[in-house]
Design goal:
206 residues; alpha+beta; 6 helices; three-stranded antiparallel sheet; 3 domains; 9 strands; Ribosomal Protein S8, Chain: A, domain 1; elongated; GMP Synthetase, Chain A, domain 3
Length: 206
């Protein structure tokens, strides 16, 4: 199916409606360029000029992302359903699969890698960056809750024993959660050391 069509009609709206029917699309799925406004001519009969429009089907980020993930999962031998919610500047993909562990990976590493790859695919040739978030079984929210509890528990140990604690290597998102959780703590502060992928958060007394 063509992504661009030019159509004519008695009015601009008629021409657009004809193009939408050919593209099997809704108005929010396309960009419209009016090439000719059209005119009725003399007495509405002589010299009538039809309106002409060029209608371009937008490349839906959600469709591109879902097709990419389906291809990846097929090669991984994983059966999964993907639900996409697309907004102006964000794309949220929720995955449902029987074997979610394979998709999540160790500490979410596979999920993060998939999110990074989808972001590259979605934002290719885009002028405005679209943020991509991929989740499965609410993993990211659960992981964030776990990290918040961990940060507070370790902060208490640092205060009690007056000794700094270095956490295991974490990705940028997880480090941000630790830093944000303790940024208003009166007694401890945090900073990061090392280089990715082995960068770690240190919790120490102020």
């Amino acid at each position: 199916m063509a992504n661009v069509v030019e159509r004519t009609g008695k009015t601009v709206q008629d021409a657009i409606s004809s193009a939408l029917a050919d593209l099997n699309a809704d108005i929010e799925d396309v960009d419209v360029e009016v090439l000719e406004e059209g005119s009725k001519g003399i007495f509405g009969i002589i010299g009538n000029k039809l309106a002409r429009v060029r209608v371009t089907l937008k490349e839906m980020s959600s469709k591109v992302a879902v097709e990419f993930l389906q291809n990846v999962f097929q090669k991984m031998g994983v059966s999964a359903e993907i639900e996409a919610k697309e907004y102006d500047d964000t794309l949220y993909l929720e995955i449902k699969a029987d074997d979610s562990g394979i998709i999540i990976g160790r500490r979410g590493e596979t999920l993060d890698a998939l999110q990074y790859l989808v972001s590259l695919v979605v934002n290719k040739n885009r002028e405005v960056y679209k943020k991509v978030t991929i989740d499965i079984e609410n993993y990211r929210h659960k992981r964030e809750e776990t990290l918040v509890k961990l940060a507070n528990r370790l902060a208490e140990r640092v205060i009690k024993y007056k000794k700094s604690i270095t956490l295991e290597p974490m990705n940028p998102y997880e480090r941000k959660v630790i830093h944000s959780t303790l940024q208003d703590n009166k007694y401890v502060e945090t900073y990061s050391i090392g280089n990715d992928p082995n960068r770690k958060v240190v919790i120490t007394l102020k």
